[in-house]
From TrEMBL:
It comes from Glycine soja (Wild soybean). PANTHER family: ACYL-COA-BINDING DOMAIN-CONTAINING PROTEIN 5 (PTHR46093), DCD DOMAIN-CONTAINING PROTEIN (PTHR46093:SF9). This is Rab9 effector protein with kelch motif isoform C. SUPFAM superfamilies: Kelch motif. The keyword Repeat applies. The lineage of its organism: Eukaryota, Viridiplantae, Streptophyta, Embryophyta, Tracheophyta. Keywords: Kelch repeat, Repeat. Gene3D superfamilies: Kelch-type beta propeller. Pfam families: Kelch_1 (PF01344), Kelch_KLHDC2_KLHL20_DRC7 (PF24681).
Amino acid sequence: MSSLNQSLFPYDSSSLTVSSSVFNPYAFLSNRHHTLTLTLHTSQHRRQMSSLLPQVAKNKAMWLNPKVLGFNPPERWGHSACFSKGLMYVFGGCCGGLHFCDVLTLDLNKMVWSKLTTTGEKPGPRDSHSAVLVGHKMIVFGGTNGFKKVNHIHILDLVTKEWVRPECKGNPPSPRESHTATLVGDERIVIFGGSGEGHANYLNDLHILDLRTMSWTSPELKGDLPIPRDSHSTLAIGNKLIVYGGDSGDQYHGNVHMLDMTTMTWSKLSIQGSPPGVRAGHAAVNIGTKVYIIGGVGDKRYYNDVWIFDICNFSWTQLDIRFHQPQGRFSHTAVAAGMDIAIYGGCGEDERPLNELLVLQVGAEHLNGVYYIPMCKPFGTYWNQEKKIIPGEADANSKTLLVRNNVEAFGKGAYEVASEKLPPYHFDSGVNGDSKRVG
């Protein structure tokens, strides 16, 4: 694996495995490992759990609602988000007919929002575009300003804060929105699907941008192609693209398709377990070989659930969320930092834009009754402060929660824990640190 590829995918499956060791069945907090634990102190619970000891623990998680400092960004949906070196970069989006072209940063170590001042040939206001992070370059493609869809490439250098619009060779994808852009390896960006100009013009074409030559190609595809769609998700694991969900105007989709980037062959996967159903406008991230699907909209329903697709055994599992869950939403973004997933913005169940930040911490429910969550490095820096006990109901069925002191938590029943000609462009990612495609 090249140094660039290593920096883009710094986590292997072993480093991303949640500990499954058994803890003492009383509230336990380890400062050294930055853990968050929860114990259910009831005799009934202990009897129930003891009968389940031979069984495998279920996947569990908890939503947190961090206190965020700095200015308050406008609500938005249809924006993009990328994560690199402790910072989440948000670009564009829409709110009430107003389209944005600003770049926001959220320091996930300090939980502080900032506005990034940029120079150069900035992209115009837009939503439903894509953004891919390669080294210290954020590559933006497509989108719409509500009247016109575009197919331009803009690149923001996160070091110099300068935008450029490179001239690319070959035939670019047609103008589109609500497509996906996915980094494969360290030098190819794959554009798939979306909706083009005109009414109900849903797409299932595929285009590749070679970052070495800045040239577009449209390879010949074989196999069982996905139905044309937009608002789907596409993630790369190795040389495979995983496509889930989407909207074709008259129907939502819930199948999983895989593209082998070596043979350029599509296949429709046969999946084990109960599927999450049809949906679009969801957020998706991969951690190791697991793809996390968060929220979205389906047939007359807004989702707030989280599903895991395991690429190793082609199986679906619903993540069991403890305590209060956020409202359903769509057209939001998600970025992964270690074992934590931060989601931002989107449209809520009343179809009003949101600007809240939520953090999903992925953990495991241990069979002795202790709830254990590892704090990932980027978030742990700021949260590793004096511990704080949040009291709940003082009865036999109460829950004792140990959390860091900048996470809001509440008592029982009220948890929030929740186009001009341009000179030839040479792409240089300049990767020296860790960065990762997300969103």
